[in-house]
Amino acid sequence: MRVARESDTGLRDRLVDVGVELVAREGVQALTLREIARRAGVSHGAPRRYFPTHLELLSAIARRGFDELAARAAAAEAGGEGTARARVGALARVYLEFALEKRGMYELMFRHDLLESGHLGLRDSSLPLFGRLVQLVGRVRPDADARLVAGALWAGLHGIAQLWGWGSLQLATGVDDFAPLLRSALDAHLGPEGE
Amino acid sequence: MRVARESDTGLRDRLVDVGVELVAREGVQALTLREIARRAGVSHGAPRRYFPTHLELLSAIARRGFDELAARAAAAEAGGEGTARARVGALARVYLEFALEKRGMYELMFRHDLLESGHLGLRDSSLPLFGRLVQLVGRVRPDADARLVAGALWAGLHGIAQLWGWGSLQLATGVDDFAPLLRSALDAHLGPEGE
DNA sequence: TTCCCGCGTAGACACTGTCTACGAAGGGGT
DNA sequence: ACCCCTTCGTAGACAGTGTCTACGCGGGAA
Asked: Is B1-52's fold the same as B55-190's?
């Protein structure tokens, strides 16, 4: 049996670490199997023992992203007071900030062609998050179908993240800050701020 | 000089034709330079004379998508009567139907990493379309900043197209038809249907 | 005829992901 | 103490990719 020393993280985790670092620094297209192996200091065949396929390694990297997003959302909710409306706003802001701050990772997380078909991150991390959103939306707008409104709101956030992320919305709308767009989306789906 | 016979489309157009056909049939990942050349019946080096780089060929293919989307939108508007609200709804429906009917093409059109950095399609085809959307939105909601509302609405449509396109929204919301989501988004940004 | 030039061919190169055979290292059972 | 055996990483092959370069064919122009 192999004894695990304290600083011995194991190759599996090291590969994912390298991937997270790499996608943050150079983007999705840099996440080559061989490049990750190189930066981890092992041969190009080594990852195969832990990740039978390139997609599985990418999926493991993406899961880190989903986990961090969930953690950020949890942290935002931990400072617990405020109206439901304000909480949705905080959640949305966290979401957009994550997407725009960690662009490469966000892109990876939503590149379904690069991830295992199981939609890993969604079921494990995003669904609870979406459930929480539904819950809050239901409290803000008891009149409407909360899942529908939450779904449309999520789509709006995703669209803003994506389109803003590479400049289309700046070009189209002429604004240079995404906050007004976020406010517009929130007002639209939840009603104006003052309730 | 070379005489152009009637059935002689020229290799350049034939390559783009093959690409459009291929992306519709097999998806973005099938749009290999060599595969396109193969299906066009030429050697793998031939495309290079017309498209110095793979990205330029993909961009030419994507432009066809932008053009068709613009054409569909124009056709929808040609049947000219109806309130501004109804026109926005028609435009939105056209957009979503295009995105979900021609999934591969839509994916290509918004894969900025595969397109020339000039964002060709946007400036030439999408921007006029967006301008028209702004115009209509301004008529529906004279109170608000039309560009902001139109931007948020476009983001919502894009998000629905993307997330619905690979099943996330179905999974999250539990519905199996995107029409309610579209209606929810339209109602949110434009106010309920009955004006 | 002879030249030239547009157009496509064919091979090389570095790179990718996957597969397979191999070797080093170390603990457990006898 | 010895051997075996499992674990883990190495190294090479293979088919495929995008790009680059040298080459040849073929038809209009001089």
From this structure: no
| CATH class label, B1-52 | mainly alpha
User: Is CATH 1.10.357.10 correct for A55-190?
Assistant: yes
Q: Which nucleotide is nearest to B47 (CA to C1')?
A: C8
CB B115 within 8 A of CB B53: no
Reported as a single tens digit per residue, the pLDDT across A96-147 is 999 999 999 999 999 999 988 775 555 677 889 999 999 999 999 999 999 9
Among the partner residues A29, A122, A152, nearest to B185 by beta-carbon distance: A152
CB B22 within 8 A of CB B40: no
Shortest CA to C1' contact from B52: nucleotide: D19
CB atoms under 10 Å from CB of A60, counted, come to 20
CA of B61 to C1' of C9 (A): 24
Tell whether B81 is within 8 A of chain A (Cβ).
no
Distance A68 CA to C24 C1' (A): 39
Give the residue among A158, A156, A132, A150 at the shortest CA–CA distance from A190: A150
Domain boundaries of chain B, sorted by first residue:
1-52, 55-190
Q: B95-137: per-residue pLDDT in tens?
A: 999 999 999 999 999 999 998 877 555 567 788 999 999 999 9
